[in-house]
Amino acid sequence: MIDLPVYAFEGIPPTLDLVPLAARRGLDHAGMRLSLAAWRSLPLEARTAIARAGACDAVDLVAIAESALAASPPATPTDRAEDAPAGAPPPALREALGARRPLADATWAALSALDRFALLHVHRRAIERADAAHLGEAYDGIVTARAAAALSTHLDARGAVHMVDVGAKAVTERRAVASGVVRMDRATAERLARSDTPKGDVLATARLAGIMAAKRTPDLIPLCHAVALTRVAVELSIEPEESRVRVTATTEARDRTGVEMEALVAVSAACLTIYDMLKSIDRAMVIEDVKLLEKDGGRSGRFVRSTEGG
183: which strand partners? Predict the structure, then answer.
């Protein structure tokens, strides 16, 4: 769903020109039927109120009735509907979904009342139109999205990407160390070691790039929080015999979320800058082995990469 209670698979814009499933459920519970013309005659505020009431497990019938008063033509009374039992999905729905889209009893029970209504409504429409494609879209948009949300804190209950709320987390000292390698021709590493490169001071420029990038991490990684960095250190060491430059970044902050991404971004930017400044003499360079070495602070505590882990 987006901010309004509309599933992405419905394809309904924020203007609510069509009746979303949430509104259909609310109207069914209130024993009311609105034609499309009547729905569109309502102000957007009223249509939104009906949809939001229908999205709640306990439908506010009074809110729906009040919001629908201005409809023209008026709503038609119908029998009030109730939600399907949460214990198990109807066998016909399960059969229509097939083996590729399983719907276990526990999965069905974990869905919201609106989710169950939506699947059943789309199933009825699929039977009427002899077209099951939309049912598959509804399953993916509801059941598959919920399964993904259970595995990721960056997805909400309906599968929409969002920033994690860290407001309730404690402010603690945070620290992270990351590293990476730029592998190059041995002759390139030797020239770098004796400061014989065409673009000037490679290491100083790469160090500055890494520090600047760490401070811009939220601008580069969409769901990262802005943290109050207290320290960013980028160290570069030339290893001519191994034909490489090793980059290590340390980031520190006192905040509610960690600084691992800042350290990794710093390493990545420094490595890319090394490549940029040396590419005129060695385009075959490879950036590799960018990884988190350790982190400290926060609920997850301390992490140190083992030797076996690379």
Answer: 244, 286
> Domains of the chain: which residue ranges?
8-77, 91-151, 172-304
Q: How many alpha carbons fall within 13 Å on the CB side of residue 13?
A: 2
The answer to whether 142 and 162 have CB atoms below 8 angstroms apart is no
Other residues' Cβ atoms within 10 Å of the Cβ of residue 124:
13
Instruction: Specify the fold of 172-304.
Output: Alpha-Beta Plaits (3.30.70)
Between the CA atoms of 182, 185, 191 and 197, what dihedral angle is there, to the nearest 10 degrees?
-70
What is 237-262 written as a DSSP string? EEEGGGTEEEEEEEEEEEESS--HHH
Residues marked active site are found at 276
Residue 298 C-alpha from the chain's centroid: 21
pTM: 0.50
Q: Specify the pLDDT at position 148.
A: 60
Q: What is the pLDDT of residues 174-194, one digit of tens each?
A: 999 999 999 999 999 999 999
Tokens linked to 133: 């494609």
Biggest alpha carbon–alpha carbon distance for the chain? 87
Instruction: Return the pLDDT at 309.
Output: 46
**4 three-state secondary structure:** coil
